Amino acid sequence: MTISQAESHKHLIRTKVWSQLRKVALPDSRFHHDYSSFIADFEGSSAATDLLVSLPAYKNADLLFIAPDNCIQALRYRALKDGKTVLVTTYGIRRGFWILDPNEIHESKWEMASMLDGMERIGRHIALAEITKLPMDIGLMVTGTGAINYKGLRFGKGHGFFDLEWAILYTIGKVNKKTKTIAVVHECQVLDEELRGEVWDTGCDFVVTNKKIIEVEDASKPNCGILWDKLEEGMLEDIEPLRELRSMKK
What is the pTM of this model? Predict the structure, then answer.
């Protein structure tokens, strides 16, 4: 299967899942039900959060990356309440990484800081050079996704932002192939579909739904860093950390 055929296959899968997701998804204030533009929150996401925080991978992590997805806003808030430091990116990674440190933010502002509309006002922008100097590595990366199979391969919105976030953090040495990854989804987003992963696809060690935890054996993790020639057109110009990373490499 060629790359174009594989992407067409993924698109068909996403479309099928989105028709089911619409029954349980919560609309976004900006994107409504356009699931190609955002990862939706859904009925039962609080139950998924409760399941996730029971995992040793969560309990043992002091520094977490939690993607800027609607379905894991409550997890960002929960992590701050649990005394954990959270890294998050802005939408599309365009304005880079932000750090939410419960030791720097008053607890009355934790919930607002966990929201995309609040994190840039309350959290702190952090450059890659500073991330490299943080005293701990990232213990866990969590994302939402459009759909996922039982091998932990994601069928996302099609832009590859989580793969890119992994690649950036891998390149600067803050994650490695042992770093645990988790996808949070509704039951209707878990599929039996086969998918051949690309070299840059970041598999998930756990899939956490509103009903259960699925543990994936030998989830694939890329070790290639940024594949500069594979970036979508305009990404280098639009995404601040990519420009910083290129400067660091020079």
Answer: 0.93
